[in-house]
Structures are given as structure tokens and as C-alpha cells.
Amino acid sequence: MPSLKHPGVVIASAVLLLLALGLPWSASTLQHIPGWYSPGFCTPNFYSGTVDCTAGYFSPGMTLGSGEAHGVHVVARVFLVGALVLIGCALRLRQPVWLSVAGGAVLLGILLTGLAAQGGQLAALAGAALLLYAGLADRERAPRADGRVLP
């Protein structure tokens, strides 16, 4: 039965993927326009001998744009959670091939979300690299024709 030679690396990658769900994946585009006051004014009406006045008004300001999107709000969350499930399967079944599949799924999620140097993407990228390392380092080598197994 195959075994995982790097369980610490696998656990570290799972922690990084969980962390990526909470970190921002896009920058904030929020812009605040401060409020203002426009005073009223009065003008004399010479035809009727009166004064016409308008009321002033206050605008409280507004906020435009959107806040930063965390990992739980982007498309990659499906791939991150799927990778965590595949990590659980790899640990339970002791089959390192699932680690490589999980690493590929995380990379696909990063590409579909769009590349940006935000904390969530960097954590997911590090987790994917660890998964690919563990999946490729733990796979069993096929013997050559002469019966030797390459390291």
C-alpha cells in the first residue's frame, strides 16, 4: 500500500488553503466623496416688490466602488474547498496522486479568478506548490526494464 512520505507538507498546504479563504483576493476600489452644504440665497423681485428665497441643502456624501473580495467571495473558493476534500481523500486513502490533482485544481482556481499579488492568492499559490511537491515526491517510481527503480 502506498504511503505519504511528507504528511507535514500536506498539512501545511491544507492550512495555507484554509488561510487563503479568509485573505483578500482583490484590492479595494472604495472611494469616499465627502459631504457638502449648499446655502440658500435670496433675490429681490422688483416686479412684485418681494424677495424670493431658496432653501439650502446638505449632502451627507457617498461611497463609490467595492471593498476587497476575500477568498470566500471569489470563484476560487470552489477549487479551494475541492482541493481540501482531495487532501482529505489523499490522507485517508494514502494515495499521493490526489495531492497533485488538488494542486492543479488550486492553480486552475487562481487562473480563473485572475492574477493579482494579494494575500489570498499568494497563500493559495504556496499551498498549491506544496501540494504539487508532496504529490510528485511521494509517487512511487515504476521499475525500469532491468528491474532497478530510479530515485
SSE layout and pairing:
Elements: H1 7-22, E1 31-38, E2 42-45, E3 50-53, E4 57-64, H2 76-93, H3 97-113, H4 119-137
Antiparallel strand pairs: 1-4, 2-3
Keywords: Membrane, Transmembrane, Transmembrane helix
Transmembrane segments: 70-90, 97-116
Question: What distinguishing features does this structure have?
Answer:
transmembrane; two-stranded antiparallel sheet; alpha+beta; membrane; transmembrane helix; about 150 residues; single chain
Summarize the structure.
The chain has 151 residues and is of the alpha+beta class. It has helices at residues 7-22, 76-93, 97-113, 119-137, and strands spanning 31-38, 42-45, 50-53, 57-64.
What would you report as the Rg, rounded to the nearest angstrom? 29 Å
Tell me the number of structural domains: 2
Helix and strand content put the structural class at alpha+beta
Q: Separation of termini?
A: 18 Å
Notes on the structure:
It is built from 4 helices and 4 strands; from the N terminus they run H-E-E-E-E-H-H-H. By secondary structure, it is of the alpha+beta class. The protein has 2 domains: 9-25 and 70-137; 37-62, no CATH class. The strands form 2 sheets. Strands 1-4 form a two-stranded antiparallel ribbon. A two-stranded antiparallel sheet has the order 2-3. Keywords: Membrane, Transmembrane, Transmembrane helix. The chain crosses the membrane at residues 70-90, 97-116.
